[in-house]
Each structure stands twice: as C-alpha cells, then as structure tokens.
Amino acid sequence: MLRDTPSRRLSAKLAALGRDGLLRRRQALEGPQGVRPRIDGREYLAFCSNDYLGLANDPRVVRAAVEAAQLFGVGSGASHMVTGHSVLHERLELRLAQFTGLPRALLFCSGYQANIGALTALAGRGDAVFSDERNHASLIDGTRLSRADVVRYPHCDLAALDALMGASDAALKLVVTDGVFSMDGDIAPLPGLLALCDRHDALLLVDDAHGFGVLGARGAGVLAHFGLSSPRIVYVGTLGKAAGVSGAFVAAADEIVETVLQQARTYMFTTASPAMLAAAVDASLEIIGDEEWRRERLRDLVAALKRGLRIGAGARLAASDTPIQPLIVGGNEPALAASAALRERGILVTAIRPPTVAAGTARLRIALSAAHVPDDIARLVAALNEILPA
C-alpha cells in the first residue's frame, strides 16, 4: 500500500479539478495587451480583457510612464508610509478625488488590496457587514478578515437587505457591493442601497472596478451614473481595467480615508507602486474624461452583439448593458468546449466556471473594448451562431 503524503494529496486534488473541468491554464502574450494579442505565434481576436477603453497600450499613456521612469526610476523602494510616496502619487490622489467628485482619495497597489484594506480598517468585531451574495472575491475575503459579523443578502434584493439590517443591533453597519458585477455585468441598485443606509445609519462601500471609466459623465463611474453623493459612501475604483494601467484607490470623506490610511495593513505594509504608474494613470484620466467616443462605441458594440446573436442549445445572454456580456451555457464541459471551438476559429473568449460563478451557470464571459470595431463583433456573432445554433 502506497503511503499517503502531502504531495500525493495535492496531486489527488489537482486530478479532481481536472475531472471536473476546473483546472485553469495560463497563456503568455507575446506583445502588448489589446484586442489582437499574439500567443504562440498566432494572432487572435480577443474578447476577454478588462481593458474596456483600449488604453493599456495607448501611446500617450505609455509615453507618460516612460518619461516618469526616466525621472523617478522604476521602483518606489518603500511603503507610502516610509519613503515610497512621491509627488506623482500625491498628484494622482488629488486628481482622482476631483475626477470622482469625492473629498479625498488614497492609492493602493491593487483592487484586491484596496478592498481588503478598506474593509478591515472600517469594520471589526461587534460590527455587521452586509454583503451581496455575488460580490467579488476581494470583498468576500475582506469581510471575513474584518472579523465583523458577515450577513450575505440575496443578489440586489433591497427588501431582504432592509429586513436584515433592521434585525441587526451592531454598533456599525456597512453594506458592501460591487458597482458592476464582474461575472454578470449588471449594475447594483445604488440609489436604493444608499436609501437603506440612510434609514439604518450605515456606510455603503461600492467596488466600482468595472464601472470606473465606463459609466457616468466623463467616465467618472457608477456614482456619476446615478448622480449620487453622500458622506456615507466609500468608493473603490480600479486603475487596471478601463484606465488601462495598474492599481486602485479608495475615495470617501476625509475621516474615512484617513482611517484607512492609518489602519489598512494592505496599505501600511506593502511597497508603494512605482511612481511611473501614477504618471501613466494621470495621462489615462485625461483621455477617459475627454474622449467620450470610447464609451459611445462600447454602447454601439453591445447593441450590435445583442442584435446579432441567434444562439440555442440552452445558452442565453445575461441581462447586461455594460461591456461585460455573459453568455451562460450551464455546464463546465459545454462552456470549455465552446471556448475551445472559438479558439480554433482564432477568437479568445474565456470560459468562466465555479467557484467564480455558481454551479450550473458556467459561461463565456464576453468582454467588449472600445478598441473593437463592428467587424470584430460580426465575426464573433457568426462564430457563436455556428457553435451554439438556435
């Protein structure tokens, strides 16, 4: 009998993931991010990047990074709390606060760190965090690490949330939600959520990773989309998606941001991102605010995709008006097979499976970019209609 070892147990777990169609594979791009990446010597048409505005390789953004690298180098060398905080970081924080219409902003190296940092700084034992059941993993992990009582509410269900908040006697109540849900593409009912926070004297943390740059006037995000402003709001924006660069920020009232700065371990104990990235984001913000045609094109591409699809075999396009257009297939193997069939045709669309989404809702996550053109959508639609005929 073979002796059980940690290595054998890990191998067995990996084998189980393979049998269930849940193993993930990386692919190495041989050039810049874009809608036509090169992989293993072949050019593909890609619909799986969060570079919604096509800015990840924009010459103006690249130039800003290069010029800043020549002046500030490529590493910050220390945390923001020591000597890693530069005038470029300082300038970008002021610019982000102005851009979003919030009093103050604080930079983080990633959206994951921003969410965990904000949640653990603002909530703790004796408090209650109310979390949408479809929130991003970073929000889920942040709520767990906060050590507050975590109450999950049904997706976007205001009545259920109202009842749950009313039954809580926690010292501090914090509602946590994605602004645009990353796997469904739908938008959280923020006006209703804010009204509940007013009623129950709670804070509202909104992770706008997929709305910043895409929604609202001048791309200011989901708060601008709804015209919302309140000292109760804690806004988390991501800079590695529509902004095309890297990092994230927390924006809110001064006392909230100062609390996060003083107490967020993911801020205090990590090396600051390079100053050249702050310069790149600064350049990106200028483009986001000025070039409305990018958001207009996204809306046109979404409409073209919906008009053209004639799919069957149990597949359905989720209700979404954002660049995230999930084509729900159901099982893991059918989703993988559809993704593979598209790849054979030179089209990349990622198959999303559990635990990222609920069992039985595996999907092709179609992500559109302003860098796509109508012919790209026509090619994708023709392929999908062939693979999943009505």
Question: Which properties best describe this structure?
Answer:
7-stranded mixed sheet; Aspartate Aminotransferase, domain 2; 2 domains; 15 strands; globular; Aspartate Aminotransferase, domain 1; 390 residues; 4-stranded antiparallel sheet; 42% helix; single chain; alpha/beta
Describe the structure.
This protein is α/β, with parallel strands linked by helices and 390 residues long. The chain has 14 helices and 15 strands. A seven-stranded mixed sheet has the order 4-10-9-8-7-5-6, sandwiched between helices. A four-stranded antiparallel sheet has the order 11-12-15-14, covered by helices on one side. Strands 1-2 form a two-stranded antiparallel ribbon. Strand 5 (128-132), helix 5 and strand 6 (149-153) form a beta-alpha-beta unit. It is globular, with a radius of gyration of 22 Å. The mean pLDDT is 96.
List the helices and strands and how they pair.
Layout: H1 6-19, E1 38-39, E2 42-43, E3 45-46, H2 59-72, H3 87-100, E4 104-108, H4 111-122, E5 128-132, H5 137-146, E6 149-153, H6 158-166, E7 173-178, H7 190-200, E8 203-207, H8 222-226, E9 233-238, E10 248-252, H9 254-263, H10 265-268, H11 275-290, H12 293-308, E11 316-317, E12 324-330, H13 332-344, E13 347-348, E14 350-352, E15 362-367, H14 374-387
Parallel strand pairs: 3-13, 5-6, 5-7, 7-8, 8-9
Antiparallel strand pairs: 1-2, 4-10, 9-10, 11-12, 12-15, 14-15
